[in-house]
C-alpha cells in the first residue's frame, strides 16, 4: 500500500515538473535598428503546439517567413524539444513600435508571448539584414545624396539631389519612399520631377545606370555644421538565383530591399559683419531694385499706384522690402504684396512687389524720396546697395493749403507757397479812453418790462428748438457721402479677405491683417502695440461706442480661434459682413 502511494506521488511530481517546462517565447535579434535594416524575430515553443497565430507586425512588413525549424534531442535520457517560427521584418517608418503577442495551443492550453518594444531610427551608414543569408543580395545598388555646395553662406541656396545608381546585373521593378529627410534647420522647396528616366553613367569607375529620385533647394537658417538627413527607399530588386531553366539560363527572383543615402553635413558660414549696411534685412543672392509710379501728373483726390519691386535670384521669401517714403500730405494706403516667384535647380527667381495706392488731397508738387535696398552678393562675396530715383508727383487741380510745402526743384527745399495777406483795414478800432460816461439810476429788474419780455421769449423758443432738433436728426447729403466713404474704405481694407471667402485659413489671416492695418492707419499704432487690451483702451479714449469696440474685439478673437478649429462657410460670410460694418462704424466714430 505504501509503495503504491509513493509511486502515485512520484508520477504527480514528474507530471508537475514536465508541465513547468512548457514554454512559448518571442525573441528578436535587436531592439533598435535603422529604417534601412531588417529585424529577425523567433517564436519558440518547448512542446509541439497547434493553431500558431503570429502578431499583426504593425509598423513593419514581412520580407521573409515564416520559416519553421524543429529540434528534438535526447541527452542523458532527457528529452529536449523546440519548435521555432522565424520572420524577417522591414520597418515602414521611423518611431517606436511594439511587436504584439503571438498565440499557440499546447495540450489544450493557450500560451502567449510577451510584447517586445522596437525603436526604429534614421537610416544607418552600414546596414545589416538580420542575419538572414537567404535574403541578403550581392547587388550593386547605391543611393547617393549630392550637395551643390558644402560651405554656403547663411540664407544662400544650395541644391540637394538624391541619385540612385543601379548595376546592369540587377533589375528594378518599383520603388517607394519610406522615409524623407525633414530639413529641420533649412527653408526648403522640393522641385517636382515629372518622370524618372535611367541614363547610363559610372560609379567608382564601373558602368551603372542612374536616376534622380528627388531634388530639393535648401536655404540654411543657422550657421555652423548642419546635418542633412538621409532619404530611405524600398526597392523591388530582381537578382539572379541559383536556379536555372531547362535551357540552363539563370532564373531571377524579386526581393524587397531598403537602401538609404548617407547622412551629409554642410558647414554654413555667417555673413560678414564688415561693411554690412544698416538697412540690410537678410537678402542673399543677385537682385535688381526699382520704384515706379503709374503716373506723375494728376488732380487732387485722384489716385496713382507706386510700386517698390525687387527682382532677380535669391532668398525671396526670407527678407523685407524697404517701405516707400512719401510726404505727410499725401494719403497712402497699406501696400498690396505681390509675389511672382518660382524655384528651379538654381534656387528661387522672379520678383516681389509692394504696390502702394496714393491719393493726393491738395494741389502742389510732391517728391517721393529715393529709397535704398541692400543685399549680399554671393558671387562677389560683398554687400551691394541699390538706390531708386526721386519721383516728382504733380497735382495740377485741387485746393491749396497755405501750410503745404511746394517743391521748387532745389535740394533741401523748404519753401512754402505764399498766400495774399488780407489788409486789416477797419477791422480793428482803438479803444476810446474818454467814454463820456454818465450815471444811470438803478431800477428793479424783477417785474420790469425786460423781465417779462425775456420770459415770453424763452417760452416761445421751445417749439423752435424742437423743430431744429428733429431736422438735425435727418441725414444730410454730406452725412450720406461720409457714410459711403467709410463703407468704401472698409471694403478696400477687406478686399484680400473677400478673395479668400472659400478658404477658411487664408480668409482669417487676411481678415486679421486688414483689421490691424486699419488701426495702424487710424491710430498710428505699431505692430508691437497690437494687443486687444491696448486696442480697447485707445478706442475708448477716442470715444468709440462700447458695442462697436466689443464687436471689433470679437472679430479679432474669431481670427485667433480659426487657427485651431475649422470654421463653416456661413460663419466666414457672417464675420466678413460684421467686419465691413465695424470698420464703417469706427471710421465715422473716430
Automatic annotation (TrEMBL):
InterPro entries: BatD. The keyword Membrane applies. The chain crosses the membrane at residues 449-468. Residues 1-19 form the signal peptide. The keyword Transmembrane applies. Keywords: Membrane, Signal, Transmembrane, Transmembrane helix. Pfam families: BatD (PF13584). This is Protein BatD. It comes from Mesonia hippocampi.
Amino acid at each position: 500500500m505504501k509503495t503504491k502511494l509513493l509511486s502515485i506521488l512520484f508520477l504527480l511530481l514528474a507530471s508537475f515538473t514536465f508541465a513547468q517546462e512548457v514554454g512559448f517565447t518571442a525573441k528578436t535579434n535587436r531592439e533598435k535598428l535603422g529604417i534601412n535594416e531588417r529585424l529577425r524575430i523567433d517564436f519558440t515553443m518547448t512542446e509541439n503546439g497547434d493553431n500558431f497565430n503570429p502578431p499583426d507586425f504593425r509598423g513593419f512588413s514581412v520580407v521573409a517567413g515564416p520559416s519553421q525549424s524543429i529540434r528534438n534531442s535526447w541527452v542523458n535520457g532527457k528529452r529536449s524539444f523546440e519548435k521555432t517560427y522565424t520572420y524577417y521584418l522591414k520597418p515602414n517608418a521611423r518611431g517606436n513600435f511594439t511587436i504584439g503577442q503571438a498565440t499557440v495551443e499546447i495540450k489544450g492550453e493557450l500560451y502567449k508571448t510577451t510584447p517586445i518594444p522596437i525603436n526604429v531610427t534614421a537610416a544607418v551608414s552600414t546596414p545589416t539584414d538580420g542575419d538572414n543569408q537567404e535574403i541578403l543580395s550581392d547587388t550593386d545598388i547605391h543611393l547617393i545624396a549630392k550637395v551643390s555646395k558644402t560651405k554656403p553662406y547663411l540664407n544662400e541656396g544650395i541644391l540637394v539631389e538624391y541619385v540612385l545608381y543601379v548595376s546592369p546585373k540587377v533589375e528594378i521593378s518599383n520603388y517607394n519612399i519610406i522615409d524623407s529627410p525633414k530639413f529641420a534647420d533649412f527653408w526648403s522647396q522640393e522641385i517636382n520631377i515629372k518622370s524618372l528616366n535611367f541614363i547610363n553613367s559610372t560609379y567608382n569607375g564601373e558602368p551603372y545606370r542612374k536616376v534622380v529620385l528627388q531634388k530639393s533647394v535648401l536655404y540654411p537658417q543657422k550657421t555652423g555644421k548642419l546635418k542633412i538627413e538621409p532619404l530611405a527607399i524600398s526597392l523591388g530588386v530582381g537578382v539572379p538565383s541559383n536556379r536555372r531553366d531547362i535551357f540552363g539560363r539563370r532564373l531571377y527572383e524579386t526581393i524587397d530591399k531598403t537602401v538609404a543615402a548617407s547622412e551629409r553635413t554642410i558647414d554654413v558660414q555667417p555673413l560678414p559683419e564688415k561693411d554690412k549696411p544698416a538697412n540690410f534685412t537678410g537678402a542673399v543672392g543677385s537682385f535688381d531694385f526699382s520704384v515706379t509710379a503709374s503716373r506723375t501728373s494728376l488732380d487732387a483726390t485722384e489716385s496713382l499706384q507706386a510700386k517698390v519691386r525687387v527682382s532677380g535670384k535669391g532668398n525671396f521669401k526670407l527678407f523685407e522690402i524697404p517701405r516707400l517714403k512719401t510726404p505727410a500730405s499725401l494719403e497712402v494706403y497699406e501696400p498690396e504684396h505681390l509675389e511672382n516667384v518660382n524655384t528651379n535647380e538654381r534656387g528661387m527667381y522672379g520678383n516681389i512687389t509692394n504696390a502702394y495706392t496714393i491719393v493726393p488731397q491738395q494741389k502742389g508738387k510732391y517728391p517721393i524720396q529715393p529709397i535704398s535696398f541692400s543685399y549680399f552678393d554671393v558671387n562677389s562675396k560683398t554687400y551691394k546697395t541699390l538706390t531708386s530715383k526721386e519721383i516728382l508727383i504733380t497735382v495740377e487741380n485741387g485746393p491749396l493749403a497755405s501750410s503745404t510745402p511746394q517743391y521748387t526743384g532745389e535740394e533741401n527745399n523748404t519753401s512754402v507757397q505764399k498766400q495774399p495777406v488780407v489788409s486789416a483795414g477797419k477791422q480793428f478800432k482803438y479803444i476810446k479812453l474818454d467814454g463820456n460816461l454818465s450815471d444811470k439810476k438803478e431800477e428793479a429788474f424783477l417785474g420790469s418790462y425786460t423781465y417779462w419780455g425775456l420770459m415770453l421769449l424763452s417760452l416761445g423758443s421751445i417749439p423752435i428748438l424742437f423743430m431744429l432738433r428733429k431736422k438735425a436728426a435727418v441725414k444730410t447729403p454730406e452725412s450720406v457721402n461720409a457714410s459711403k466713404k467709410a463703407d468704401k474704405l472698409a471694403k478696400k481694407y477687406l478686399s484680400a479677405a473677400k478673395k479668400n471667402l472659400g478658404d477658411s485659413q487664408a480668409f482669417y489671416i487676411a481678415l486679421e491683417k486688414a483689421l490691424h492695418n486699419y488701426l495702424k492707419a487710424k491710430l498710428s499704432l505699431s505692430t508691437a502695440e497690437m494687443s486687444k487690451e491696448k486696442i480697447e483702451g485707445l478706442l475708448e479714449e477716442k470715444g468709440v461706442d462700447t458695442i462697436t469696440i466689443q464687436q471689433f474685439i470679437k472679430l479679432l478673437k474669431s481670427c485667433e480661434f480659426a487657427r485651431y478649429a475649422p470654421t463653416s462657410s456661413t460663419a466666414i460670410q457672417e464675420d466678413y459682413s460684421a467686419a465691413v460694418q465695424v470698420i464703417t462704424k469706427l471710421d465715422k466714430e473716430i
